[in-house]
Structures are given as structure tokens and as C-alpha cells.
């Protein structure tokens, strides 16, 4: 699957994985990034390429995709920190903004594009932005560029939203939207993780307890989608299982710790391997994480990989569980990398010749899912970037690889 003309570092280790993540960062920011309304000091991502800058102003812009774009830039920014004594080079060259600076401009772009507010109608969207800006704030502190005033304002605003959505209706949990007819894992899990990371462990645990009581499927070891109130008042469980729902639950379980939470985290990792994987295209006998196509689903597995990488490094989990989490991330990242397609100078994206397009499915080459001339969606490229960044944090190959 590896294109013969693509430059690949000779070593297969942490440096190689960082190189791959950097190539993804450079490609996604170059292909999709632009100023918002041509305003200096702003950044936003087009949701599709090829597309014209002006027409993008009149298309849906997907708040939560942009929130994950912030998270990806924070991942890259953390690699730019290097080992402390020796900072790494800027991901896009010395004359280009650092990843952290670009992320800050993106947060400005999100606020302006959202009509001067960070509040919207979906609590899961806001939770993803709250988590990514919290990580951005910590990155800024480490790079001595604190943005505490703005980030504190974002946190206050969004915390009020989460408090209002996390009610006793249906026994607990967090509403998905301001229609307040659906409490689900996509909202409850990232809000729980946010509470856990901002000094409200009791609130976080209450939400996890509700998820365990109402939406944990003991047969699969995974979390179902949600609980809906119909127009007639009937309460119905939405039983779909999505990859991305398992990720923030796993993150919250690890953040809070404790025997019961860590045991449940181990169960989730093992269940992901059993139920949410497909055969690897490159290495018989190995598995890659299942992906969910394009659109919103194009982000799902990247989110899961982020939290599996955290599990792989958590010494409180059994060694076999950590190895499983690491193996799933690394094998999926390898599949995305091996299936990449360089842009050539004869296609509509020719202005970005040499940059990379990644497949929406790790088991299928980008030459098949996104052949030259096809429209490429931002969500799927963020997903591959997220997986490659997650792999760059897995510092050791798991046993048996």
C-alpha cells in the first residue's frame, strides 16, 4: 500500500511515528486551513476540499469537527515541546506559526464563526471544545504563553451549560441537545471527563455511574448510545454501539481511578478488541480499529484511539490490557500510514502537491476511498491525524510485535 515515491524514514520507532504525525499535521492544516472571513489572527478549517474559500463561508462548518481540530493541534504542539531540554522544531517550519499558536487562532475563529459565543445547541459539541481548550491552556502554560483569561471565560461559560444539562431526569446523565429529549453517551461521557479534569470528581462519578446503570451492555462490555424520550413520553434505549463513545468513557474512568473504574476501563479495552476491530490489511493475524466511513462518522475512531493511547501508558492497568491498547493504536496507525496517497500535480488539489490524503478506512487504501479528483472530507483526515498522533505517544511496541 505504501506509495513507492513517498519518503519514509528508515527506523520504525518513536521518531518515525512522530515524523508520520508531523506529515499528517502539515497536510491537514495546508489542505483545509484558512483564515475566517479573511481576518488576520483567525483560523478555521474547510469541511471539504477541493472547495473555494468564499463558498466555504456559506456551507455548514461543523463546530465539533473544529473542536477536534483544536485537539489535534494541541497534540502536535505537545510534540513541539520536545524533551524539555531540546525543543523540537515547529511542525510546519520556523517561519510558520507553532501548532499552539494556530490552535489559539482556531479558537478565535470558532467564536467568531459561532456568532461571538462558544454556546450552541448541542452539549456534546461544547464538551469537545471544553476538553480541547483545557488541553490548549495547559500547553500554553508549558510554553510560557498563558491564555488564562480567555480560557477561564470559556470554561465558566461551558461549565454552566453542562451543569444545566446534567439533571436528574431519567435518573441522571447529560442531555445531548437543548431539545432535552435524549440523554446519551456522546454527551455524558465527555462532560464526565471534563468534570474529572476540572476538579469536580463527584459530578464526574455520578455521570459514570449513570452510564454504567443505564447504558453499559454487559454482554458486549461496551456502552450503548443513549436513552430517548419519545413524543408520547415513552422511554427507549438506543442500542447502537459506536467506537467514539467508548473513548471518553475510558478517559473518564482513567482520570478518576479507583478499583472499580480501573476494572471497568480494562473491560472496555478488551471489549474494543473483541467487538470493534477488523483484520489488518498489512499484517495477517492482527486487527485494526473499525471505522465508520465519512461525515460525522469519519471522526469516530480517531477519538477512540486518543483514549486507548492513554490506557496504553497507564501503569494501573494490567500489562496485557496496556499491550492490547497499544497494539490497536499502533496497528491502526500503520494501516492509515501505509494506505496514504500523495497528492499529484494533475488533480484538483494540485496546489497541495506532495501533501498526503488518508483513507477513511484503515483497511482500504486512500487511492480507493479518495482517488484523484474525489472530494475529501475534513473529518476523515482529522481522524487519521488523531490516530497517528496517538501512535506517536505510544513509546514502546507491545509484546509480540
What does this structure look like?
By secondary structure, the protein is mainly alpha-helical. The chain has three domains: about 1-15 and about 245-400, no CATH class; about 35-165, Glycosyltransferase; about 175-240, no CATH class. The chain is built from 14 helices and 13 strands. It has helices at about 15-30, 55, 65-80, 100-115, 125-140, 150-165, 185-195, 200-215, 245-255, 260-275, 300-310, 320-340, 365-370, 380-395, and strands at about 35, 45, 50, 180-185, 215, 220-225, 225-230, 235-240, 275-280, 285-290, 340, 355, 375. The strands form six sheets. It has a three-stranded antiparallel sheet. Strands 1-2 form a two-stranded antiparallel sheet. Strand 9 and strand 10 (about 285-290) form a beta hairpin. The radius of gyration is 20 Å and the shape is globular.
Spell out the blueprint of helices and strands.
Elements: H1 14-32, E1 33-34, E2 44-45, E3 48-49, H2 53-56, H3 63-80, H4 99-113, H5 123-142, H6 148-165, E4 182-184, H7 185-197, H8 201-214, E5 216-217, E6 222-223, E7 226-229, E8 235-238, H9 243-256, H10 259-275, E9 277-279, E10 287-289, H11 300-312, H12 319-338, E11 341-342, E12 356-357, H13 366-369, E13 376-377, H14 378-393
Antiparallel strand pairs: 1-2, 3-13, 4-7, 5-6, 7-8, 9-10, 11-12
Helix pairs in contact: 1-3, 1-14, 3-4, 3-5, 3-14, 4-5, 5-6, 5-7, 7-8, 7-9, 8-9, 9-10, 9-11, 10-12, 11-12, 11-14, 12-14
Amino acid at each position: 500500500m505504501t506509495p513507492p515515491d513517498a519518503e519514509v524514514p528508515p527506523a520504525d520507532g518513536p521518531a518515525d511515528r512522530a515524523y508520520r504525525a508531523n506529515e499528517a499535521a502539515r497536510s491537514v492544516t495546508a489542505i483545509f486551513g484558512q483564515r475566517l472571513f479573511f481576518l488576520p489572527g483567525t483560523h478555521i478549517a474547510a469541511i471539504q476540499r477541493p472547495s473555494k474559500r468564499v463558498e466555504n463561508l456559506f456551507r455548514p462548518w461543523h463546530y465539533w469537527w473544529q473542536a477536534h481540530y483544536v485537539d489535534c493541534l494541541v497534540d502536535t504542539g505537545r510534540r513541539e515541546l520536545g524533551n524539555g531540554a531540546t525543543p523540537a522544531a515547529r511542525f510546519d517550519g520556523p517561519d510558520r506559526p507553532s501548532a499552539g499558536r494556530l490552535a489559539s487562532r482556531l479558537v478565535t475563529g470558532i467564536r467568531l464563526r459561532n456568532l461571538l459565543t462558544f454556546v450552541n445547541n448541542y452539549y456534546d459539541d461544547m464538551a469537545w471544545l471544553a476538553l480541547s481548550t483545557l488541553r490548549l491552556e495547559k500547553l500554553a502554560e508549558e510554553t510560557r504563553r498563558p491564555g488564562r483569561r480567555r480560557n477561564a471565560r470559556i470554561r465558566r461559560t461551558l461549565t454552566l451549560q453542562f451543569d444545566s444539562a446534567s439533571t436528574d431526569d431519567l435518573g441522571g446523565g447529560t442531555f445531548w441537545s437543548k431539545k432535552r429529549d435524549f440523554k446519551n453517551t456522546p454527551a455524558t461521557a465527555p462532560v464526565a471527563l471534563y468534570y474529572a479534569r476540572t476538579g469536580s470528581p463527584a459530578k464526574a462519578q455520578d455521570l459514570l455511574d449513570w452510564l454504567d446503570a443505564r447504558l453499559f451492555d454487559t454482554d458486549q462490555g461496551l456502552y450503548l448510545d443513549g436513552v430517548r424520550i419519545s413524543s408520547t413520553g415513552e422511554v427507549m434505549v438506543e442500542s447502537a454501539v459506536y467506537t467514539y463513545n467508548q473513548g471518553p468513557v475510558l478517559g473518564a474512568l482513567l482520570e478518576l481511578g479507583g478499583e472499580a473504574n480501573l476494572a471497568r476501563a480494562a473491560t472496555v479495552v478488551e471489549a474494543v478488541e473483541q467487538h470493534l476491530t477488523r483484520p489488518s490489511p498489512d499484517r495477517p493475524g492482527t486487527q485494526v480499529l473499525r471505522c465508520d466511513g465519512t461525515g460525522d462518522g469519519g471522526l469516530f475512531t480517531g477519538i477512540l484511539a486518543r483514549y486507548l493511547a492513554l490506557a496504553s501508558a497507564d501503569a494501573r492497568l494490567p500489562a496485557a490490557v496496556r499491550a492490547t491498547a497499544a497494539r490497536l493504536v499502533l496497528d491502526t496507525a500503520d494501516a492509515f500510514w501505509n494506505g496514504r496517497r500523495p497528492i499529484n500535480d494533475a488533480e484538483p488539489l494540485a496546489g497541495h502537491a506532495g501533501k498526503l490524503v488518508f483513507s477513511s478506512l484503515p483497511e482500504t487504501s486512500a487511492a480507493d476511498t479518495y482517488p484523484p479528483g474525489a472530494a475529501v472530507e475534513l473529518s476523515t483526515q482529522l481522524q487519521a491525524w488523531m490516530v497517528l498522533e496517538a501512535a506517536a505517544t505510544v513509546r514502546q511496541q507491545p509484546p509480540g510485535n
